[in-house]
Automatic annotation (TrEMBL):
One of its GO terms (molecular function) is hydrolase activity. InterPro entries: DNA_helicase_UvrD/REP, P-loop_NTPase, UvrD-like_ATP-bd. It comes from the Bacteria. This is DNA 3'-5' helicase II. Keywords: ATP-binding, Helicase, Hydrolase, Nucleotide-binding. One of its GO terms (biological process) is recombinational repair.
Amino acid sequence: MAQELTRAQQQALDLTRNISVTAGAGSGKTKILVDRFLKIVLQDAAKTRRILAITFTNKAAGEMRERVAEKVTELLRQSEDPARAARLRRIRDQLNSAAISTFHSFCARVLREFPVQAGLPPEFNEMDEIRSYILRQEAIDRAIQSLDDDDNQNWIALFSRLSLFRVTNMLNVALEKSYEMEKVERLFSDLSKETFLNFLHQQWFRLIEPYLAQLDR
């Protein structure tokens, strides 16, 4: 039995509108993306390769492609109209080359199509998550090994409170989320050290206040 769409989901499937969907996890965003994709290609199967569907992770891209394929197979099984069935088979055959991918994969695809203009060798490879992690770790290790002895007291103070493993992990997360770190840096760049420390103290007490209240009972 088909799930009834909400009013907002119905609006999201209106192809005459440009839309932006913001919703939490598990709210059905992927379903709406799949339904919108299908609604477009069912009107014109030739558009299957002309739609750009970009997600953040390979898992999400694979899931979306799989859901579209499953839906097309289901519609093909139910179809009694030869013309509609032919259109569905064409969509199914074109799905493998459809532009459903991550941002990185799409950019790599464009660069491979225009390597001369991009000034890159056509055989370049994308950096996967494992390779990216290894390079970040190597950079952190080199940075720690090159610490200046003249500032030794500060490093001793840091590592006396946090283990080397924890500091390394924190730096790895900071490098992985460099965009977010830049936003934080811009946010606090105009604050004095005293103002920034006061802000941290306020946040700290806000977090521990509920626990302190329980201890006073």
